[in-house]
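tool=predict chain=A
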Amino acid sequence: AADGRVQRLDQGGDTVGEGQAYGMLIAAGLRDEERFDAIWQWTKDNMRRPDGLISFLWRDGRVEDPEPASDADVDAVRALLAAACRFDRPALRDEALELATAILTHETATFQGAPMLVAGPWARKDPITVNPSYFSPATFAALDQATGDGRWGSLSASSRSVTEILMPEPGRLPPDWARIEGGDPVPSGPPNQPEAPPQYGFDAVRTLVRMAEDPDPA
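tool=predict ok
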């Protein structure tokens, strides 16, 4: 929309944080600075929480679900880093690093002694909930380089490790959702039905894309 809101037309015209982040990524990729600014400004004005993270769902003029989904925050960071380069605006890089700090603080947990991205702040409690398609080693590598903070490299490593465990032979397809049970990642149903059969759905498709763009050849 002209004001920078990305609408889900097939969902009644609502808006989710990941849609805003996708819009920012596309605008940065197309070098559309005006549209990028509109989307980011609308997001900050309407969906950003006091802790800096992006609320999940906005509908009918207000935030309906304030719980963030970490993929929206990670993709928004990536978009801000890309835009800072595309438009030669260091201030966008500063905003990216502020949001990145909030991700480390509120959207990570410990897995085998290293930080791991979880599905959102709500997902840090036991059993820890992860969505493999939220892992973005390419973004974590960019943040590792931008900050010099080794925790981002550790997030890349844990993303690879957890994803590999969740993609065993012979099928090799990752699940949409998983939980950490007994110290190991285990495929699960969605958060509202964790006991439901795991499935490879539209969330999980993104896992393959994100792992394929991992800058680590291995």
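The chain has a mean pLDDT of 96. Helices lie at 17-29, 33-46, 70-86, 90-106, 137-147, 150-165, 202-212.
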